[in-house]
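Reminder to self: tokens first, then the designed residues, so the page reads top to bottom the way the pipeline ran.
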């Protein structure tokens, strides 16, 4: 059997931070069936800053007590996402730093309404590949809670 020593193991759910957005203590659900990661957002408004496209939105997190957090981020693109039931939705895409355990790396997130979903953040397969992670779906919260401050060497 092959082993992958350079890859970190994570569980089906993990604590994450999005430090560039000022968001800590998010419960993320790992979704290997999704290519792109998703962040629950509302009030999404594109705008220009110094001639560059940006997006302003309200991020939502917390499971028992809902918290709203105003955010702004450079807009990467707008893409069409096809759900598992075949529904196509146009979504704004941002790129921001994700901290999970002792690692931090840049991840693309689509912004979408997830108010009916238990988890406000989904981590898709592209984020897992870029973070050099493997998933053991029998485990949850394997990694320690990440710190808000940026780890040394984070990009």
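Designed residues (155 positions):
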């Amino acid at each position: 059997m092959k082993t992958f020593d350079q890859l970190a193991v994570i569980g089906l759910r993990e604590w994450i931070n999005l430090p560039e957005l000022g968001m800590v203590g998010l419960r993320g659900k790992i979704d290997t069936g999704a290519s792109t990661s998703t962040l629950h957002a509302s009030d999404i408004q594109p705008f220009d800053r110094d001639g560059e496209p940006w997006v302003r939105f309200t991020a939502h997190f917390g499971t028992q007590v809902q918290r709203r957090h105003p955010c702004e981020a450079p807009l990467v693109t707008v893409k069409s996402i096809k759900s598992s039931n075949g529904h196509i939705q146009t979504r704004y895409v941002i790129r921001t730093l994700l901290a999970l355990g002792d690692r931090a790396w840049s991840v693309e997130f689509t912004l979408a309404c997830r108010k009916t979903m238990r988890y406000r953040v989904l981590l898709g397969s592209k984020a897992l590949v870029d973070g050099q992670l493997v998933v053991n779906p029998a485990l949850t919260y394997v990694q320690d809670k990440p710190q808000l401050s940026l780890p040394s060497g984070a990009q």
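Residues 121 and 140 are 15 Å apart (CA to CA).
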